[in-house]
Design a protein that fits this description.
By secondary structure, the chain is an alpha+beta fold. It is 16% helix and 43% strand. The chain contains six helices and 34 strands.
């Protein structure tokens, strides 16, 4: 109730009276005074523009009013009118129905210091309430007649509110595992003059829901639903709106077997291993990871390996150790390039030596693997064991363009003239399967001049044999000896230094020319 200065007056003026929320002035003119009932337009314009509330009564007077006396009606309750609009997203999960509701209450007249919200009483449990001026957690209302099948909760405010009020309610209903029909539990705001809203339906994978008996609902496209529903997460499958509180909807529930899919997969992988003359080797393992829901990638490096650096998405990261394995964080729903650089120390190769190279073992399925191995030229590889791996020509190697400069610097790419290369491939590595291995047997070799000497020796001896055969001369013991020594020299050259395509072509051309020249010379002699 607005205070009135009862000993003030204004000649040719008007007086405005306001009711409070629960107490107001009595009807009619003040007792013992000469007033004429008026309207708000009778008030001066400078007063009207500052009015917050519409005056309850206005009286005009032409003389000084003197002391004003007016009856007061105690406990005069003003009518409070409000509307409510509820937007609810229902999610059907295995064993539970979850509802997230946003309720917008619009108070048209008066103020409210509390609201009554009704939820179905059969198996429905409120989990969370959020609203302004929250005095305490809502409790079951006492002395309030609840609608049939509902429980009423009282939401109390620390002060009387007016205008718009937003309520957020999360509640759930436990479901029997064999349930095949489900009535949606609706929320009601008691006392609302108009109660409207919208609902959205979604279900987790493996559960299919079908509307059976919609009442007082209008089917709408999901795109027409308010953001309060569509922005709450999950793909909304069905949408409805309503303009009356007595709506209902029965759902048919059907369960399907869910096919387990990979949470992450490596689409391509590259291993680059360099074996050094002092016996240790260094490996850079690079993976292109297509991740959906996996939080980490676990990599088990070979026993005794020292991890030098870990990269993820082109940036150096700190990986954790988990039971001897590296755990590398992965961002969800995107592609990430992961690189791990490690080295293994061992004894020098010596005159003869053997090294087993072991790739990392991953908890993610790995496809399209290329493994490039570099060995020093001063050690010839005379034996290779690589189970499940196929050896390819190193000219088929597709180096990863995803490596950062930091990775390349750490791997210290050697001078190609100082190292021989071998390429191995494998189509797929199973998650948590055996790590691929390559075992190389080495033999120390002399300098490059020995390779040239072996090539010339093999070529000379083979020319001798070809000439005798084309001339139809018997090889004899010396011929057989020349053939054996020439082949042995050729094999040593191939094992120790390899035979290039150019070398092979030149050798074949020389032997062919010798054969043709010898054949023609024999024809002239005949």
């Amino acid at each position: 109730m607005e205070k009135v200065a009862t000993n003030s007056y204004s000649v040719n003026g008007a007086t405005r009276w306001h009711y409070g929320d629960k107490v107001g002035f009595g009807a009619g003119a003040p007792a013992g005074q000469v007033f004429t009932k008026g309207g708000a337009n009778d008030l001066p314009s400078d007063i009207r523009k500052d009015l917050v509330h519409k005056p309850s009564q206005v009286f005009r007077h032409v003389e000084a009013p003197g002391q004003i006396k007016a009856p007061i009606e105690a406990a005069k309750v003003r009518e409070v009118r409000f509307d409510a609009a509820a937007n609810t997203l229902y999610t059907v999960k295995e064993g539970v129905l979850e509802a997230k509701s946003q309720v917008n209450v619009s108070i048209k007249t008066g103020r409210r210091d509390s609201l009554l919200v009704a939820l179905p009483s059969d198996g429905v449990k409120p989990l969370h309430w959020r609203f302004p001026s929250k005095a305490k957690e809502p409790e079951l209302a006492k002395g309030v007649k609840a609608p049939e099948g509902y429980a009423v909760y009282e939401l109390k405010f620390t002060q009387a509110l007016e205008g718009g009020i937003q309520l957020d309610v999360v509640y759930e209903m436990l479901l029997d595992k064999n349930i095949d029909t489900l009535p949606l539990p609706g929320l009601k705001v008691l006392g609302a003059a108009v109660e409207s809203g919208a609902i959205g339906l979604t279900a987790e994978p493996g559960i299919e829901v079908t509307p059976l008996e919609p009442k007082e609902l209008r089917r709408v496209d999901v795109g027409e639903l308010p953001n309060a529903i569509t922005m709450r997460g999950g793909k909304v499958q069905l949408g409805y709106t309503y303009s009356r509180a007595n709506w209902s909807l029965q759902l048919g529930v059907k369960r399907h077997e869910v096919v387990e899919t990979l949470k992450a997969i490596v689409t391509q992988a590259w291993f680059e291993t360099t074996v050094f003359s002092d016996g240790h080797f260094k490996t850079a393992a690079t993976y292109v990871v297509q991740n959906e829901q996996q939080r980490y990638m676990r990599l088990e490096t070979p026993e005794g390996a020292a991890v030098l650096k870990v990269f993820a998405g082109g940036e150096a990261v700190k990986a954790n150790k988990d039971g001897g394995a590296l755990t590398i964080p992965l961002p969800k729903n995107q592609q990430t390039v992961v690189t791990v650089v490690y080295e293994v120390r061992d004894e020098e190769l010596g005159f003869f030596g053997r090294r087993t190279l072991v790739a990392p073992r991953s908890d993610v399925r790995v496809g399209d693997v290329q493994w490039l191995v570099r060995t020093p030229v001063e050690f010839a590889v005379f034996g290779v064991t690589a189970e499940h791996l196929k050896e390819k020509g190193d000219d088929m190697y597709r180096p990863p363009a995803v490596l950062s400069s930091g990775v390349k610097m750490l791997t210290r790419l050697p001078n190609p003239d100082e190292y021989n290369t071998r390429l191995f491939t494998i189509e797929e590595l199973r998650a948590k399967g055996d790590a691929p291995e390559i075992t190389l047997s080495f033999a120390s070799t002399p300098g490059s001049w020995v390779a040239l000497l072996l090539s010339l020796l093999a070529l000379a001896l083979l020319i001798l044999v070809v000439r005798r055969r084309v001339a139809q001369e018997p090889l004899g013991l010396s011929g057989f000896a020349a053939l054996l020594v020439g082949v042995a020299a050729l094999v040593l050259k191939a094992v120790g230094w390899g035979i290039g395509v150019g070398e092979a072509i030149i050798g074949i051309m020389i032997l062919t020319a010798v054969a043709v020249w010898t054949w023609r010379a024999r024809g002239e002699d005949d």
